Amino acid sequence: MQIFIFIICMFCGILSGIVYDVLYVARCFVCGTDKSAYTVKDKIFLIAADVLYCLVFAAGFVFVSVMFDFSSLRLYMLLGCLAGAFVYLKSFHIIVAFLINKAYNKFTKFKEKHVEKRKKNPHVCRGDGKRHTFNLHSRRSGNLSARGNHRR
After folding, report:
1. Helix, strand or coil for residue 10?
2. For residues 18 and 96, what is the distance between their CA atoms, to the nearest angstrom?
3. What distance in Å separates the CA atoms of residue 129 and residue 88, rounded to the nearest whole number?
4. Are 13 and 89 in contact (CB under 8 A)?
5. What residues pair up with 131 in beta bridges, in sequence order?
6. CB-based burial of residue 2 (10 Å sphere; 0-12 exposed, 13-18 middle, 19+ buried)?
7. Less Cβ around it within 10 Å: N or C end of the chain?
Protein backbone atom coordinates (compact mmCIF):
# COMPACT_ATOMS: atom_id res chain seq x y z
CA MET A 1 0.00 0.00 0.00
CA GLN A 2 2.89 2.37 0.69
CA ILE A 3 4.22 2.04 -2.86
CA PHE A 4 0.76 2.89 -4.22
CA ILE A 5 0.60 5.98 -1.98
CA PHE A 6 4.13 7.00 -3.05
CA ILE A 7 3.16 6.76 -6.74
CA ILE A 8 0.00 8.81 -6.13
CA CYS A 9 2.12 11.44 -4.36
CA MET A 10 4.52 11.47 -7.31
CA PHE A 11 1.60 12.23 -9.62
CA CYS A 12 0.63 15.07 -7.26
CA GLY A 13 4.15 16.43 -7.66
CA ILE A 14 3.93 16.20 -11.45
CA LEU A 15 0.59 18.03 -11.39
CA SER A 16 2.10 20.69 -9.15
CA GLY A 17 4.74 21.29 -11.80
CA ILE A 18 2.04 21.76 -14.44
CA VAL A 19 0.20 24.25 -12.20
CA TYR A 20 3.46 26.12 -11.64
CA ASP A 21 4.05 26.35 -15.39
CA VAL A 22 0.57 27.79 -15.91
CA LEU A 23 1.30 30.42 -13.28
CA TYR A 24 4.70 31.03 -14.91
CA VAL A 25 2.98 31.86 -18.20
CA ALA A 26 0.70 34.31 -16.39
CA ARG A 27 3.75 35.84 -14.73
CA CYS A 28 5.51 36.26 -18.08
CA PHE A 29 2.55 38.00 -19.68
CA VAL A 30 1.88 40.27 -16.71
CA CYS A 31 5.41 41.06 -15.53
CA GLY A 32 7.62 40.20 -18.50
CA THR A 33 10.77 38.13 -18.41
CA ASP A 34 13.32 40.79 -17.41
CA LYS A 35 13.61 40.51 -13.63
CA SER A 36 15.65 43.71 -13.33
CA ALA A 37 12.73 45.75 -14.71
CA TYR A 38 10.16 44.53 -12.17
CA THR A 39 8.21 47.24 -10.41
CA VAL A 40 6.65 47.03 -6.95
CA LYS A 41 3.34 45.95 -8.52
CA ASP A 42 5.13 43.17 -10.40
CA LYS A 43 6.78 41.92 -7.23
CA ILE A 44 3.42 41.93 -5.42
CA PHE A 45 1.92 39.92 -8.31
CA LEU A 46 4.81 37.43 -8.10
CA ILE A 47 4.29 36.95 -4.36
CA ALA A 48 0.54 36.53 -4.89
CA ALA A 49 1.16 33.96 -7.65
CA ASP A 50 3.53 31.98 -5.42
CA VAL A 51 1.05 32.03 -2.52
CA LEU A 52 -1.71 30.91 -4.90
CA TYR A 53 0.52 28.08 -6.11
CA CYS A 54 1.16 26.89 -2.55
CA LEU A 55 -2.54 27.04 -1.70
CA VAL A 56 -3.55 25.13 -4.83
CA PHE A 57 -0.87 22.50 -4.20
CA ALA A 58 -1.89 22.09 -0.55
CA ALA A 59 -5.59 21.87 -1.45
CA GLY A 60 -4.84 19.31 -4.15
CA PHE A 61 -2.75 17.20 -1.80
CA VAL A 62 -5.47 17.27 0.88
CA PHE A 63 -8.08 16.37 -1.75
CA VAL A 64 -6.04 13.40 -2.97
CA SER A 65 -5.38 12.32 0.63
CA VAL A 66 -9.09 12.29 1.39
CA MET A 67 -10.08 10.63 -1.91
CA PHE A 68 -7.60 7.79 -1.51
CA ASP A 69 -8.10 7.56 2.26
CA PHE A 70 -4.49 8.08 3.33
CA SER A 71 -4.35 7.29 7.03
CA SER A 72 -1.80 9.92 8.08
CA LEU A 73 0.89 12.19 6.72
CA ARG A 74 4.21 10.38 6.34
CA LEU A 75 7.63 11.55 5.24
CA TYR A 76 7.63 9.30 2.15
CA MET A 77 4.46 11.06 0.97
CA LEU A 78 6.22 14.42 0.94
CA LEU A 79 9.27 12.82 -0.67
CA GLY A 80 6.94 11.39 -3.34
CA CYS A 81 5.60 14.88 -4.09
CA LEU A 82 9.13 16.27 -4.31
CA ALA A 83 10.23 13.36 -6.51
CA GLY A 84 7.26 13.97 -8.83
CA ALA A 85 8.10 17.67 -9.09
CA PHE A 86 11.74 16.75 -9.82
CA VAL A 87 10.67 14.28 -12.53
CA TYR A 88 8.47 16.96 -14.07
CA LEU A 89 11.26 19.55 -14.02
CA LYS A 90 13.75 17.18 -15.66
CA SER A 91 11.42 15.84 -18.36
CA PHE A 92 8.10 17.50 -19.23
CA HIS A 93 9.11 20.99 -18.13
CA ILE A 94 11.77 21.19 -20.83
CA ILE A 95 9.18 20.57 -23.54
CA VAL A 96 6.62 22.90 -21.97
CA ALA A 97 9.21 25.66 -21.45
CA PHE A 98 10.28 25.39 -25.09
CA LEU A 99 6.68 25.70 -26.30
CA ILE A 100 5.96 28.59 -23.92
CA ASN A 101 9.08 30.39 -25.10
CA LYS A 102 8.04 29.96 -28.75
CA ALA A 103 4.52 31.23 -28.06
CA TYR A 104 5.79 34.19 -26.04
CA ASN A 105 8.27 35.18 -28.77
CA LYS A 106 5.60 34.99 -31.48
CA PHE A 107 3.21 37.05 -29.34
CA THR A 108 5.79 39.77 -28.68
CA LYS A 109 6.83 39.91 -32.36
CA PHE A 110 3.18 40.19 -33.39
CA LYS A 111 2.59 42.91 -30.80
CA GLU A 112 5.72 44.86 -31.80
CA LYS A 113 4.84 44.60 -35.49
CA HIS A 114 1.37 46.08 -34.99
CA VAL A 115 2.55 48.79 -32.62
CA GLU A 116 5.30 49.77 -35.08
CA LYS A 117 2.78 49.86 -37.95
CA ARG A 118 0.54 52.20 -35.96
CA LYS A 119 3.45 54.48 -35.09
CA LYS A 120 4.44 54.81 -38.76
CA ASN A 121 0.94 55.66 -40.01
CA PRO A 122 -1.38 56.48 -37.09
CA HIS A 123 -4.20 58.00 -39.18
CA VAL A 124 -4.89 54.89 -41.26
CA CYS A 125 -7.04 53.06 -38.76
CA ARG A 126 -9.03 54.23 -35.77
CA GLY A 127 -9.84 52.06 -32.78
CA ASP A 128 -13.19 50.98 -34.27
CA GLY A 129 -11.55 49.53 -37.38
CA LYS A 130 -12.85 52.19 -39.82
CA ARG A 131 -10.50 54.04 -42.10
CA HIS A 132 -9.85 57.64 -41.16
CA THR A 133 -7.94 59.31 -43.99
CA PHE A 134 -9.65 62.69 -44.15
CA ASN A 135 -9.98 65.72 -41.94
CA LEU A 136 -13.51 66.18 -40.61
CA HIS A 137 -13.18 69.96 -40.45
CA SER A 138 -11.89 70.67 -43.94
CA ARG A 139 -14.04 72.13 -46.74
CA ARG A 140 -12.89 69.95 -49.64
CA SER A 141 -15.64 68.63 -51.90
CA GLY A 142 -14.93 64.96 -51.20
CA ASN A 143 -15.14 65.46 -47.47
CA LEU A 144 -18.22 64.47 -45.47
CA SER A 145 -18.39 67.84 -43.71
CA ALA A 146 -18.58 69.68 -47.07
CA ARG A 147 -21.80 67.87 -48.03
CA GLY A 148 -23.95 69.84 -45.64
CA ASN A 149 -23.65 67.46 -42.69
CA HIS A 150 -21.84 69.98 -40.55
CA ARG A 151 -23.05 72.64 -38.16
CA ARG A 152 -22.70 76.32 -38.94
Report:
1. helix
2. 9
3. 45
4. no
5. 125
6. exposed
7. C
Contacts with 23 (C-beta within 8 Å, 6 or more apart), sequence order: 49, 52, 53
Task: Tell me if 108 sits within 8 A of 40, measured CB to CB.
Answer: no
* pLDDT tens readout for residues 52-90: 889 989 998 889 888 888 888 889 999 999 999 999 989
* pLDDT tens-digit readout, 18-61: 888 888 878 877 887 778 888 898 889 889 988 988 998 999 88
Q: Which residues contact 9 (CB under 8 A, 6 or more apart)?
A: 61, 64, 76, 77, 78, 79, 80, 81, 83, 84
Task: Encode pLDDT of 91-136 as tens digits.
Answer: 888 887 888 788 878 888 888 887 766 666 655 555 555 555 545 5
Q: How many angstroms separate the CA atoms of 112 and 130, rounded?
A: 22
In SS3 terms, 68-87 reads as CCCCCCCHHHHHHHHHHHHH
